[in-house]
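Troubleshooting entry. Yesterday's outputs looked truncated, so today I'm pasting the complete records for two proteins to confirm everything comes through intact. If either block looks cut off, that's the bug. Protein one:
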Amino acid sequence: MNLPTNRREWISAGALGFLSGGVMSGISNGNEQQERPRNFGTAKSCVVVFLFGGQGQQDTYDLKPNAPAEIRGEFTPISTNVIGTQICEHLPHLSKLMDKVTIVRSMSHTDFEHGSASYTALTGHPHPLPGTNTPARREDFPTYGAAVAHLKPTQGPVPSATVLGPVMHQGNRPPMAGQNAGFLGHAFEPFRVDRDPNDTDFSVAELALPAEVNGARFDQRYDLLNRLEPRFRAVDRLGEIRGMTDLKQRAFGLLGSGKSRQAFDLGNETEQLREHYGRHKFGQTMLLARRLVEAEVPLITVNWARSNREEWDTHSKNYPTMKDRLLPPFDQGISAFIADLDARGMLDSTLVIALGEFGRTPKINKDAGRDHWPDVYSLLVAGGGVKRGVVVGESDQHAAFPKTDPIAPWDLAATMYHLLGIGPETHVFDRAGRPFSLSPGRVATDLLS
């Protein structure tokens, strides 16, 4: 294969897609000819909003007003624009958009710990050490963005996967598993932007050339690295240099691309629209996510916070925390995002998933909070081939266990890949050449429009 030799050729070739398309030898689609459920490949992009800590189902989408006080809590349900569907009173913007989204009230798994449950939520695979906060490891299953970058990369000069927000940690421990490319290697790490888009001086420095490096010097550096690579590969027994070479090619493609820089430039948005999304970190991050959808980035992950502490992990002071600090920006940002996509004709081709790693306990604890609860929880999905204006699944009278239609995280992952046009049964290979199914779950056909 003859690689482009300078910056300009990389741009015209679609550097990232060119690169990723050349390293897909570790893919096996297995039963490609099998009949698939409807809406395969409907979504061009997917935005995963990860609410680290665990959003309480009974305080958002699945209130139980007839339950005892220690279960129903302080919030009351309000009607939405879909007759018969109610959600929390502190989600007024979402209540007016319920005809555009679907609520799942029967998500369920068995892992009570943040680290391993987050791994499951972000990879679609149970962690091999459930109930732990094992840090990220090289043998981890790849996060969604890495898997999509490997299997269905963009053909344009933009990232195939982007993470907006910080690297997540459980407390003061090392970075959690489930956030990186794992056994796929460095070449497929999502492009990360961890600065606050609401800052007045927000920019993505990684996409800017140093002042002293002009176009000619940029091309010279690229040419020098290309000439050195054959010598590096001769001593690369473990394949590490090959991975770094791929990463280098991706970096040069990004630096040479005006489209990437424009996608991350919020200065092109009107002040009125920025206010509509909310002049806070989450709102402006969702606006940035919409720009990346327009730029045709296939997988965008939005991380709410670095740590679970004092965020959605509301073991104490649940109600003032939710009412005053968490629900208002979430409601404004996610609602503006969905409405904006729909107004631009992009919601039907963009899958939106807003979820945490689990829910919260039915019973309020002694500290006026709710603890970890994976047995049943809720999430919001929209666009990309899923139904609009419905509720899928039902919990019991205390929002403690599924009453109907339980959906596991790996089922949600299988559905996401299906809608993105990637067969969930597709095999990816680890460093030892062992095959793994992309998802062990089933496509949740109840979600499909």
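Protein two, checking that the full record survives here as well:
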Amino acid sequence: MNFIEEYYNSRDEEARLLSQHGQVEYLTTMKYIEEYLSSVPDPVICEIGAGTGRYSVTLAKRGYRVTAIELVKHNLEILSSKLDGSEKIETFLANALDLDFLADSKFDLTLVLGPLYHLYTRRDKLKALKNAVRVTKPGGYIFVAYCMNEPTVIQYVFMKNTLREIEEASLLTPDWHCVSEPKEVFELVRTEDIASLDKELPVERIKLVASDGAAHYLKEFIDGMDRETFAKWMDFHFATCERNDLVGASNHTIDILRKNFAD
């Protein structure tokens, strides 16, 4: 069992996603998915790293044709348990780095909402991204999620008072970039790291979005909000989640890309 499987086998990912603060990321991601699907007749969707199916199952139950790919068997079992057989969905236990079984230019929308959290070398990141671009139709969209560096330094180094242990383990560079290995589970990036990857792909960036904004900083407060206050919080979040000066402070971001048409 690798570090990723051990992490997700022991974690209640469903509870996080269904918490009120977890809903911020979900509602934001769905907002942009719906926005781009609205202009595509009968879209075909692929989710690489589908997890427990929060997005794949939702989209399949709305009638979309979905291919869901997941690395962790435990997660895929939870995803499959949510299906009743009426959905137009195929599921595969597979790795984002090895998608040769998928045809080129097949999907209108490709979601990569987890794999880049767990890839630690530039080579592997680019391989996963190139796979996602390859299976997407020209003019189609690719959504890529990232975990961001600065919120991690603030929350897990300083707020949790782990600075001494982090420094002793040499997990911070002199300019405060987190150093990740598989045993740390998550890879942390900055906006300039994302832009550097995009430059090597045949894509155009449409938007870089702060998918949860300040939700993790304030999760206790957000989880305690009544429905009306939470709705106002989402209004505020949607009004600010595309601001360049705030994106890097979000725990998670979504890089929304469009695949270039061939010359």
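Both blocks look complete. Sanity check on protein two: The two ends are 44 Å apart (CA to CA).
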